[in-house]
Records
---
Amino acid sequence: MGTLTKYRLDNSDCEIFFETGTGTGASLQHALDAGNFDKLFSCEIDPNTYNKVDKIFSKFENVEILNKDSISSLKYLLPKIDSNIRVLFFLDAHFPGETEEEFNPNDRKSDLTSLPLKEEIKLIHQFRPKSNDVIIIDDLRIYEDGDYDNGNVPKGYANLKDNQRDLSFIEELFPDRIIRRFYDAEGFMIILPAENIFSLTRLSAVYRAKRSIKRNLKKFFS
């Protein structure tokens, strides 16, 4: 499971943050701290994980977390978002329960629940075919080998089948978009409209220091 916490999000030119797979809530908190999103959505299918993060974010009126799978959440929320509003999607819903101590990926079936990415992408394309959204796919190494900081997934990882490690459907659905790969950590793929220059830019030391001070102040006064 990856995170966006090392990268700038305030330069995405998007007004809504939509995450599939809340996990620990680190990326959601980072997006909230960025301050440029009017509304933030996330979904988490695992009930234990959901209960933990819901307690953390329930005090924020502009954050909504659904205890649903990503496919149901996208079907529910996408029709409610105006097509002229730009959305930053962070797709990280694979292998639910990954943040729980007892999680073992090799005990999981590589089915739609564990690997919903293809259906997620299809739904985004279906509901928002002409949008100027930014789509970030986490854990690229699940789907293809590359020079990742954390290495490729081991052979047979999570019972993955060879035909599941294929992202050709993205080029087929988005032939007019810019598609970039980043090999930091477990890897990211980014899908961009042609006029968007967003990239995964690492946070400056000044930004990280300000974020740390802000969070400490919140803890102190809470």
---
Amino acid sequence: MSEHPDHDDELVQRLLGPSQPELTCEECFQHVNRYVELEIEDGAARADEAIPGMRAHLEGCQACEEEHGSLLALVRADGRAKHRD
């Protein structure tokens, strides 16, 4: 048995692939701005509902997840800066 069961579970999930349909990288980049807006305005569940397949793609694609994470952090930081002004 591994010393890192959570890491092993994540590895198995990545090898098996998503359990639901997912977007391609191109589709992900087309929708990531709107997805982030929805996450911030209405929450992750609403964003997942509005753009099906995005979450599955982000969980399996490191490049797109990094893009999403960077954009999300930027928008949140911008929102905090606007509230301070």
---
Amino acid sequence: MLEEKKIIVSDEFFDIFKNLNVISQLDKMKNLSTKELYLLLVAALDKHDDSDNTVIFNISEFKKEVMDIYHIQDDKISDIPDILKLIEETGDKYIETDNIINSNGDKLPNPLSKDEVRDSRINNIFE
């Protein structure tokens, strides 16, 4: 049996992913490395509701990067070093997001439900 390749990401990555459907993450996303940004966008497209207005807002500024991702998903070869590295690291033909972990070994959480988003937004108002 092949060992799953783990992709270790920053705590900032986890925080952004968790709050992608809650509140603007644009400033935080701009601070990620290019490699983590691509990985975040792939995870967002795979796991978040792409009709959610907050998710759309958060990824819309990265149209070029999203198009780079769709390019490889259409079985086209990429010449972007960060995308090639992510494909190699996940051991797949595409960028796999199921094996993303943080420095503690925690797997990427599921996106927040509508109720959790509401609670989180309320908490943000009173912080």
---
Amino acid sequence: MNMIFLQPFIKYAVFKGRASRKEFWLFFLFVLIIGCFFGIIDIIIGTYDYISGWGALLGLFTLIQMIPTIAVGVRRLHDTNRKGWWLLIVFIPIVGNIWITVLFCLKSNDGDNRFGSNPIKT
């Protein structure tokens, strides 16, 4: 099986190029599952703080995956022929998160665009 969900960790801080919907959403699912796993482990070993909602392992994992998540998000936006700066729209409450989710779900541009060749065809 192709380990496409691990590509953003292999391309740890690569903000150039394009990422397909499959690569983005499989990575998102991978991060979500591992984050839940670390949250459960934090509860079991007693490092989870119920007031803040964070644990030691979950916090460490969040720091480790922050750069690859931003990088794959930027590459996903590049795949829809948008600049990575669109990622900052998440700072607009509610509407920003909805809009960035819509942008991440959009179909890739067919063929090449200003950010590179289509990742599906390469």
